Amino acid sequence: MSAVFAPEQVRGEKTDLLLLTVLVLLVGLGTAVLFSASYFTADRLTGSPYYFLQKQLTLLLVGGAGAWILSRLDLDLLRRAVPVLLIISFILMVAVFLPVWDAGEILGARRWIVKFGLSFQPSELAKLTVVLYLASMFAKKKGQLDDVRQSLLPPFGVSFVFVGLTLLQNDYSTAMFLLFVILVLFFLADVRLRYWFVVLGFAGGLGILGVLSAPYRMERILTFLSPDRDPSGASFQIRAAKDALVAGGVFGTGFGAGTHKLGGVPYVYNDFVLASLAEETGFWGVTAVLALFGLLAWKGYQVSLIQTDPFRRITGLGVTTFLVYQVLINAAVVVGAVPATGVTLPFFSYGGSSVVISLFMGGILLNLSRGRR
User: Could you state, in order of their start, the residue ranges of all structural domains in the chain?
Assistant: First the structure.
């Protein structure tokens, strides 16, 4: 076996079994919860209660295969492939605007490439690409980050190109998601605080501009601040999710016995799958799942911080931050702590590109868990 696919021969360590177990449990539980949340809608829309489950299992196979490859791959090879990934991601992000795809606009947004029954959301790949690019640049320029023109403008410029393209796709939540992780990586790379605050100011201005440029986004914020403003419109989904949480109580109604998934909570199998989980398993069920995500965060940051190579360390920190931030934002939306966004719950929500990229990120963490390099 070549060294590329046998990193344990180089580092002499095996995959962290706790991290692997947590990932497997999250995928398994997520699949079961998704089926419970989606079977009624799937049967009503397609005539088969297994429609969403079958598609999710196919995507899990694709993502799992990619995760296995990434867990075995020499990350130096991945680092050398970053320029190619940047070009591919940029082309795909621009390609969504071409009038040749079967999807066109969905809910006012152009985020998907759909053809021959297959769909792909390029912004999901862009998340991973931006992390790898920033990790590569900061590792390459380590010790030279005071040079604004040579060391800071390239990562700043390239990153914000992807943020801008995401905003043009009318995907505000993903754009803000990217901005947050970019800020985290700039901070973790030891960029001088005065430069970091410049990036923060630019990101904040872009975020405010994004809200003001779309009336419906402002309406979401106003509805969040005053839930009674539009109870049958903008705030309906959040109110319905809260009703599901209350119905679950401490121990839940029983797995598969929830009723809010029968039409009470729109898109309950996607962004609001946590509401279905809360109704059926109650407080303790949600606590157990969040505890698993907490273990994933702990192990992800742990295996990243032991890396002596800057590229590996920053990549691991970025990937872990992405997964953790998704969980926190998704949970905050379901309980009504922040305005509604389109952020999915990793490994639980239905969604092709999201679940595949989440598994890829898990594969990278498994690779890093093999030891320091």
Answer: 3-368
